[in-house]
Amino acid sequence: MSRTKPAQQRRADLLAAGQALFVGKGIAATTLEDITNGAGVSKGLFYQYFRSKEDLVFALQEQFSNQFADRIRAAAGAQTDWADKLDASVQASFECYRDLYELHEVLFRHSAHGAADTDHEPAHALLAQALRELLQDGVAAGAFRVEDPETTAVLFYVTMHAFDPNFHGSHRPTDARLVRATQQLFRRAAGVTG
Question: Which residue from 4, 77, 95, 164 has the least number of CB within 10 angstroms?
Answer without folding.
Answer: 4
